[in-house]
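pls design
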C-alpha cells in the first residue's frame, strides 16, 4: 500500500502557494493517532531497521517524546526561511520538501511547511538535550518488535546480545535505541535521499516534481529505495513521518506548530489555566495558547 494514498488531489486556493496536494486531514489524523498519543505520553524507539537487525520486524512507528527548550516561546522563522542551527541550507530545504509531501498544505490550508516543521526538527537536532547528545542508548541489545513467543532454546542464542524481541503493546515503554544518534540518522538519511533521487531522475530531491518526490517517499516507505545503508529507507521515512507529526501538533515552544496550525486543524485549545463546567461538557471556543503563553499570563496576573 502506498503510504501517500491518504493524499487527496485538490487545487490550492492561494496563487502563491507551493504546488501541493492537500492531505485528507481525517485520514491523516486517524492514521497518526497512535503516534501522536505516544509522543505525548511516552518515550519511544528508534527503528531497529535503522541499524539493520535482520530477521525481525522493527519498531517503525514509535515516536520519541519531545522535551521543551528553555526560553523558546515559539518558532522564530517565517515559512520559507531556512533554519541553520543544525542543518545545512540544502539539508533544511530537503527536509522541508519531504515533510511538505508527508503533510501538504498551503497558506490557506496550512501543512507541515506552513507550520514550520523543519524548524522544529532542526531545533530538536541542534540542542544537547533535544538532540539526544546525552543519555542515548547506543549499545545492544536493541529491541525489535515481535509478537511471537520466543522459544526457550533461543534464550541462549548468540544474537541475544544484539537484539531482544518486544511485543507491540510494550514498545512505548522503551526509549531511543540505535547505534546512530538522531543527528547521524538525519545527516546520512538526507544524503541517501538525494543519491536515490539522482539515480532515478538525475536530480536532487528538491528539484523533483511533487509526483516524483511522492514516488521517492513511497519507495522509501516500502523499503524499495536502494542505497540506504543505515538508516534504511523505511527507517528514515518513519523517522521523518513521526517527526512531522510531532512538529505539527506539539506545543509551539518546541519550534513547530507555527500560528497553531496543527491545533487549529484538530480544534485543540492548547494550555489553558482552567475550563468552566459548561466548557468541560460542551467544549470551548477559547483561542489556542502555548504553555509558555499561559505561564507568562499567570506570572503577570
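designed seq:
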Amino acid at each position: 500500500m502506498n503510504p501517500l494514498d491518504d493524499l487527496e488531489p485538490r487545487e490550492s486556493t492561494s496563487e502563491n502557494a507551493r504546488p501541493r496536494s492537500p492531505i485528507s486531514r481525517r485520514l491523516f489524523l486517524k492514521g497518526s493517532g497512535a503516534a501522536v498519543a505516544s509522543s505525548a505520553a511516552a518515550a519511544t524507539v528508534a527503528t531497529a531497521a535503522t541499524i539493520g537487525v535482520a530477521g525481525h520486524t522493527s519498531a517503525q512507528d514509535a515516536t520519541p517524546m519531545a522535551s521543551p527548550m528553555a526560553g523558546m516561546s515559539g518558532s522564530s522563522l517565517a515559512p520559507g526561511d531556512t533554519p541553520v542551527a543544525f542543518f545545512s541550507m540544502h539539508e533544511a530545504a530537503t527536509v522541508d520538501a519531504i515533510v511538505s509531501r508527508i503533510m501538504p498544505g498551503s497558506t490557506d490550508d496550512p501543512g507541515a511547511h506552513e507550520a514550520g516543521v523543519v524548524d522544529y526538527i532542526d531545533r530538536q537536532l541542534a540542542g544537547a538535550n533535544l538532540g539526544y547528545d546525552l543519555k542515548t542508548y547506543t549499545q545492544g541489545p536493541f529491541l525489535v518488535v515481535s509478537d511471537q513467543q520466543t522459544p526457550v532454546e533461543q534464550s541462549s542464542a548468540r544474537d541475544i546480545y544484539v537484539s531482544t524481541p518486544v511485543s507491540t503493546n510494550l514498545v512505548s515503554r522503551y526509549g531511543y535505541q540505535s547505534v546512530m544518534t538522531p543527528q547521524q540518522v538525519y545527516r546520512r538519511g538526507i544524503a541517501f535521499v538525494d543519491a536515490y533521487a539522482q539515480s532515478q531522475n538525475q536530480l536532487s530531491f528538491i528539484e523533483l516534481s511533487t509526483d516524483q518526490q511522492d514516488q521517492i517517499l513511497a519507495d522509501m516507505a516500502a523499503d524499495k529505495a536502494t542505497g540506504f545503508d543505515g538508516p534504511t529507507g523505511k527507517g528514515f521515512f518513519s523517522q521523518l513521518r513521526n517527526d512531522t507529526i510531532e512538529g505539527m501538533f506539539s506545543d509551539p515552544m518546541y519550534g513547530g506548530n507555527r500560528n497553531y496550525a496543527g491545533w487549529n486543524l484538530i480544534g485543540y485549545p492548547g494550555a489553558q489555566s482552567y475550563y468552566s463546567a459548561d466548557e468541560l461538557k460542551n467544549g470551548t471556543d477559547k483561542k489556542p495558547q502555548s504553555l509558555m503563553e499561559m505561564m507568562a499570563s499567570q506570572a503577570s496576573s
